[in-house]
Structures are given as C-alpha cells and as structure tokens.
Amino acid sequence: MEPLNEITHGSGRSPDAAADDHAAKADRLRSVIERFAPLVDPPAEDVIAQILTDAGGSPRGRSGRGFASGGMTAAILDVTGGARVSFELAGFGCSDELDYDDFDDDDAYSAAVDQQYLDAEAGVAAVSARLGLPAADDLAVDTLIYYGSRVRMRAGHWAVTVAVVQEGSDLPIQLVVDLSYGADLPARLAQVAPPPAAGTSVDWDAVSSGLGVALPADYRWLADRYGCGTLDRRVSVLPPAELSPPLLGPLVGPLRYMTARTLPVATTADGALVSWVLDHEGQPDQWGLRIRAPGHPDEDLEVGLLQYLVVTLSGAYRARYLPTGTED
C-alpha cells in the first residue's frame, strides 16, 4: 500500500498528471466499492472498518473511523439506520488562498478562481467515468444533494456519488466520493415484504393540497405499489387518506425556539409512532424520521421511510427502545 500523500492542488498539476492521478485513485476506489456491492443490508461499523482495512487502508486518528491509502482518505460516518463512507480524493485549494496582488487584473484573478472549480469538475467527470457504474435509481439516497457538481451512481444497494464539495470560501475545494447504503431499495423491500399483485392509484395533487405539503417520492411509490397498510405484521404505513397536516414542533431552550414540524406516517406492532421530521421545508425527499415509543426518549433517523422499512424488516436496524434479546 502506498503511503498517504499530501493532498495536491489540481491547479498546480498538468492536465495529464491530474488525469493519471484521478484514474489511479478511481481504480483503487472501484476495488473498495466492489467489496461493498454484494452487501444487501447496511453492515455494522466494525464490518465497514474491516472492509476498508482489507482493501489496503491504514487506520488514522483515534476514532477508528479514519483510513488512508494511496493519496486518498476515508471516513466512516455515523448514520442510524444506514451506513456511509466518505472518500476524499483530491484538494484544489480555495479562493481565499489566492492573493489578488499576484494577478495583473480582475480578469486574471477571476480566471484563477474559476480554474480551481474547473479542475475539480474535471476530476468529477474523470473519476465517475472511470468507475463505470450504472446511474442511481430515482429513489436512491442523495447525501450530497446540496452540491451541484455531482454524478450519482450505484453499486448494488449502495449509492455512489462523485462530487465537488466546499464547505466555505476559506476551506478547500475537494473531490469527494460518497458511498451510502440506500440504492435500489424497492428491490430489497420486495425481498423482505413482497408487494401485492396490484397497486393503487392516488391523486397526489389533492393529497398535497389537503396537507399543505408535498410528500416524499418514496412514500408516493409505496402507496402506489403497496397500497400502504401493514408490512410483515410489524410496521403499518398510513394511507394518504389517513395522513393529517403537520404538527408544530415543541418549543425548546431558554428563548423557546420552535423545532421542526412532524407528520405521523406509520406505527409499529409494539406501539411506536413513526413521523417525518420536516427539517427541510420544501424538500420532502430530505426529511428524516422520528421514532417515538411510550416511556422512551425519541430516536431520530437520517433516513427516509423506504429505507426505514427495508432495514427494519430485514433486521439490519433495531430501535433503541427495544430491550436486548427480544424480537421487534
């Protein structure tokens, strides 16, 4: 395994050198993705760590979640009800590092700033093409939705996103590959809870008008294909006609801040209530879930309803309120 190299700036390399670097890292990454692709459910964190180690990664940092190999770094991210690994392939500097006095005029300075992004976008195109994966399905998770320069693909039930990421003008522009469980979920759900022979037809415009909000695409797919109701005698999804308008969130803190609204969407056989958390108003596909069981603290999940059903019915996810050693 090659030692970790200092992340290089795309604007400081020739196009040929950058292309060779992107190709080499994409090849290494493809071998890692191939180890995840056969996994039909999100594995435990120690399993992910072992996969990264077996693929040639060296642990870095004390958390046990960081790895490095061949000029790339990887970080295991905590996702309740899912699994996610973020890979950083290259850095391209940031505009704050450029000294305006080093340029002849405004145009030259602007061109240098633009070139950083152009180099990063060229990296996205090169790496995604080299990986050669099929496009992500419409219901696949989109963890990097807020970054415009991205290519979405999938490997089995894993969403693979290649993107340009920058958290602020004073932070570096990065070429990132995100590997998250949550692709081709309809196929996995059909394995653990086969759909009925015929679905239902819903007037979604009327439903959204009555609720005052548009609903997530995965719920609309579930209602159309499964007709809602109880799945595997464990989770009952409310049909559109039984949904109620969102509830106001509780006021918290000394200044009584209002928290995100919630919208109940399902119940479990053991009495828990599953609600959407409308923390992304106007973007229903980004809503997470809140599990509320009587006598227990709420549990928030950063996954959508379809993924919740998949990992719950498959046994890959176990709610915190359930006692150890019992069946959910």
Automatic annotation (TrEMBL):
User: Where in this protein does the record put region Disordered?
Assistant: 1-21
Domain of life the protein comes from: Bacteria
Q: What is this protein called?
A: Uncharacterized protein
- Source taxonomy lineage? Bacteria, Bacillati, Actinomycetota, Actinomycetes, Micromonosporales
